[in-house]
Design goal:
Helices cover 82% and strands 0% of the residues. With 219 residues, the chain is an all-alpha fold.
Length: 219
């Protein structure tokens, strides 16, 4: 009990750093991931902004980033992180690579959700004279909303796991605490506590994501 009390300040600091990393990258996954997923969808074959070259190029770049293990991506982006943020240490710096991983990950989920929208609805909107922007705003996004939320839930859960890996290169957070105390110092109790914290965070994201997605589901 005494050791836990002594560790509490470090745990709170690590938890806050994890929230920072996940929160920042989560926001970027929404702000950039949805437009990128939309771009992939509407430039695909048979859609109103069909463009094979741009669609193939976008898909290739996303696949390259997605196929790179996050730890390797984190290291590869360190020079760019240094240029943009001015440091490679800390949760803010780690948020850059997390955001890159989250954006491309969620973009694919957005594209998949949009492909589940009944094409008859899109064709009907087109027949009524709706513009591409109106179709996106009033048909595609509302119809795919439940899938978009579920995809965001999966992205959030993945980010919790990725944030733990960020501790390897000084990103801070719960993962960093687990490595410094649980691994290097062989303090099993610290490792157990950090694992429990990560499990709780994942469960919270999953439960709230399911609740919101079920409310948004029109089917």
């Amino acid at each position: 009990m005494d050791s836990f009390i002594e560790l509490l300040p470090d745990l709170l600091k690590a938890f806050w750093e994890t929230l920072q990393m996940v929160g920042i990258s989560f926001i970027f996954s929404i702000v950039l991931g949805i437009p990128l997923g939309l771009f992939l969808f509407i430039t695909s074959k048979g859609l109103f902004w069909e463009n094979k070259f741009l669609n193939t190029l976008g898909s290739f770049l996303i696949n390259v980033i997605r196929s790179t293990p996050y730890v390797i991506l984190l290291v590869l982006l360190l020079p760019l992180t240094q240029i943009l943020i001015g440091t490679t240490i800390g949760p803010i710096a780690a948020s850059f690579s997390l955001s890159v991983a989250a954006v491309v990950f969620y973009a694919r989920l957005v594209e998949a959700s949009l492909r589940e929208v009944d094409k008859g609805v899109i064709e009907a909107a087109t027949a009524y004279g709706a513009t591409p922007l109106q179709i996106i705003k009033e048909v595609l996004l509302p119809e795919a909303l439940s899938g978009l939320i579920r995809g965001l839930t999966v992205t959030g859960i993945s980010l919790v796991g990725f944030s733990a890996m960020a501790g390897i290169v000084g990103g801070g957070g719960v993962g960093d605490l687990a490595i410094r105390f649980g691994y290097y110092r062989y303090e099993t109790n610290v490792m157990v506590i950090t694992v429990v914290i990560l499990i709780v965070m994942v469960q919270i994201v999953q439960v709230f994501g399911d609740i919101i997605a079920n409310k948004a589901d029109k089917k």
